[in-house]
Amino acid sequence: MEIQAVTMILIKTMNKSLLSFVGIFFVFLVTAQDGSSLWLGYSILENETERAAYAESLQFISFSDSTERMQLASKELQKGLQGLLGNSPHEKKKLPNQKGMYGVQLQLDEDLTLSKEGFEIEYTPQGTTIKAKKDLGILYGVYAFLREMQLRKPEPFTVVDQPKVKIRMLNHWDNANGTVERGYAGSSIWKWFELPYRLDPRYEDYARANAALGINGVTLNNVNASSRFLTSEYLEKIKALADVFRPYGIQIYISVNFRSPKTLGGLATSDPLDPAVRKWWKDKTREIHQYIPDFGGFLVKANSEGEPGPQDYGRTHKDGANMLADALQGYEGIVIWRAFVYKADPNGDRFKEAYKQFKPLDGTFDPKVIVQVKNGPIDFMPREPFHPLFGALPNTPLAMEFQITQEYLGQATHWVYLGGMYQECLRSDTYAKGPGSSVAKVIDGSLFEHEISLMAGVANTGSDANWTGHPMGQSNWYAFGRLAWNPEMDAATIAKEWVVQSLSRKEEAVSTLTDLMMSSHATYVKYTYPLGLHHMMGEGHHYGPQPWLDKSGRPDWTSVYYHRASASGIGFDRTGNYSDALDLYHPEVQENWKDPQSCSLDYLLWFHHLPWDFKLNTGNTLWDELITRYYEGVAEVEQMSTRWESVQAQIPSPIYENIRGRLKIQAKEALWWRDACTLYFKEFSQLPIPEGLTPPSRTLEEVKKLEAIYHLR
Ligand code: BDP
Fold it and tell me: Can 3-98+134-152 and 167-502 be said to share one CATH topology?
């Protein structure tokens, strides 16, 4: 309000050129400084000639049909152009027939050979069309056009695009009390106590940001679900959100607690084969549709980490999932059943648990069911081999579950771009139908020809002004969205897109930041879990190192269960000599990993237990390589800081300072990880820190105390 008033006074008193300068300044001021506008900041195009050329060719917007969403698309285009060009074209009902009058037409075209969300953009200086079969395609086309304008010069171009995955979804682990499980960016963005009466303006900002990526589904609540979300009181609140999201093409899903018939319905059981239970879910589903006619469906975590499920009644995952599918018959919605299940068996291997439970169920699920599998077999570790279920269930559609929130990846203080990690998983070859059977093709449904396809990302959003805590966390939300649209996209291209739209268009900044983003994940892995180590984080909070953790609620929640360090060596033997988890993969995949001499070093200790003096193909012994990597990781964080400082002038200063501070924390904690792990493993190897590296200046006991602080009351 105040900014607008000041602007009006300035406008009245200024000449034109000064005005455009002030315009640029204000657009910058209100859009780019705190990161709250995400990739929709649309800061002014700096190159005046290019800006003028775009402005010349974009003088008006017209649209073929006046649906609510077409109008929304036009408004979004106006908003974007206002930012990029400093002024916005007017809407015109009819195409102006004047020479020199060029603009954009948003045009519905039933004859296009694209899916209902696809679009075609044709830009020329003398006129631009954005065509789609449906108005949602037009909206997606508008966002894509605004993105392209920031990446290209004003020269003719054509873009034809459509999503490869049908459901592109965020999973929020948000609780009814406003907390977020594994959230590091403040409290929940959903204000349950205010809904449905007050609609926080951020709901719409959130919907815009997602729609710009093509995200079309949102599960609002934690998979460790409260039955409260199924009460009519909460359904009314959820309906209010659904109404905000609908114009943006986003459908709502709810995580459900399997015990709800008992806790909420007062029934004696929640057995999925009990007729009263089945009726309860049917009635509840009908009720949900009275509030949300286009309800997306249910997400279920069952018989996992203490959550209730069909196994409590001697039934299977299939019985539970199919009961919910039955309740959804006649509606559009689906059941998303999670495969994140594992049992505490001190002599077993958690790696194999989900496979053991789900493989025998292949082909038994209702067509409305999709099984959602985490990218790796353990639990969102910084680097995991792809989950062996991908490619192993040809008769069951499988959804990908990635984690965007950085639970095990430094939370909100470490800069880790996840695009490359997602890409590594999606490009992995399962060999399920011969070479080229990538995880991406399993997920998009093309490999086994499934109707439903889904990619989910566990959200990293919160109430912080910049949404994600670490400003770079935004890039992970962005990368997830782009890969959900097209799992074959390139992570570096995505990184660059994000930088250009969100941080800086200055050439040097773009290349430095893209580089930094692309190497950030490998750096993190080096100072935390090099060579395929996994699951050695602080108990419960999952922050910082605790490789010495040997007692917990379950053996497979400790660290020693995974690294198995002893005087004789380190690593989890998953070959035929011990757990044989490798056998769950196709023979060609096994071939890549089964021989420790040829196994990629990134996965070595995932599959092999090796002596400390094992000679690697780098020429180093295992011990020397391990320790060297910890040291390299620390050094790389120092280099990140220096490179970050080199682009200071090209980054909005609040974001610059924010990241600079976080990099200092990261440097301190990289050292924490290095010292904790090297000193701890040294107890077993009894070997010296390799020559040329300065041994840690603190003792293991001192480092152990750092983690202990997290448990003080
Ligand atoms: C683990 C998290 C836990 C989640 C669980 C899940 O630590 O908070 O509830 O995954 O995915 O990574 O169900």
Answer: no
Can you spell out the DSSP letters for 257-296?
A: -TTHHHHTT--S---TT-HHHHHHHHHHHHHHHHH-TT--
Smallest CA separation from ligand 1 atom 11, residue: 340
> Per CATH, is 3-98+134-152 categorized as 3.30.379?
yes
Q: What is the mean pLDDT of residues 58-86?
A: 95
Instruction: Please determine, for residue 248, whether its predicted confidence score (pLDDT) is greater than 60.
Output: yes
45 Cα–ligand 1 center, Å: 42
Give the mean model confidence (pLDDT) for residues 593-602: 97
d(CA 706, CA 311): 40
If one compares 12 and 694, the residue with the highest pLDDT of the two is 694
State the catalytic residue, choosing from 305, 550, 588, 613. Answer: 305
Residue that wins the pLDDT comparison between 190 and 707: 190
CA of 554 to the centre of ligand 1 (A): 15
Fold of the CATH domain 167-502: TIM Barrel (3.20.20)
| 407 carries an active-site annotation | yes
Report pLDDT for 16.
Answer: 42
Helix %, strand %, coil % of the chain (to 5): 45, 10, 45
Rounded CA-CA distance 185/404 in Å is: 12
Pocket test for ligand 1, best of 223, 372, 381, 409 (most atoms within 8 A of CB): 223
Amino acid at 33: Q
pLDDT tens, 603-637? 999 999 999 999 999 999 999 999 999 999 999 99
Closest CA to 375 of 327, 334, 407: 407
Angle between helices 491-502 and 419-427 (to 10 degrees): 150
> Would the CB of 223 count as within 6 Å of ligand 1?
yes
Please indicate whether residue 301, judged by its CB atom, sits closer than 6 Å to ligand 1: yes
Asked if the model's pLDDT at residue 287 lies above 50, the reply is yes
Q: Is the CB of 416 under 6 A from ligand 1?
A: no
Please tell me the CATH superfamily of domain 526-712, with its number: Alpha-glucuronidase, C-terminal domain (3.90.1330.10)
For residue 301, which of 257, 266, 363, 347 has the smallest C-alpha distance? 257
Q: Is the CB of 374 under 6 A from ligand 1?
A: no
What is the residue with the minimal CA distance to atom 2 of ligand 1? 182
| Cβ-proximal residues to 369 (8 Å cutoff; 6+ apart), any chain | 321, 322, 324, 325, 334, 335, 336, 337, 396, 397
Catalytic residue list contains 305: yes
Give, as one character, the DSSP assignment of residue 499.
H
Catalytic residue among 407, 424, 429, 625: 407
CB of 535 within 6 A of ligand 1: the answer is: no
Q: Probe ligand 1: pick from 174, 181, 222, 307, max atoms within 8 Å of CB?
A: 181
Atom of ligand 1 nearest to the CA of 182: 8
| pLDDT tens digits, one per residue of 500-552 | 999 999 999 999 999 999 999 999 999 999 999 999 999 999 999 999 999 99
pLDDT band at 344 (very low <50, low <70, confident <90, very high): low
Domain range annotation of the chain: 3-98+134-152, 167-502, 526-712
Query: Which is the closest atom of ligand 1 to the Cα of 542?
Result: 7
Residue 235: CB atoms within 10 A of its CB come to 21
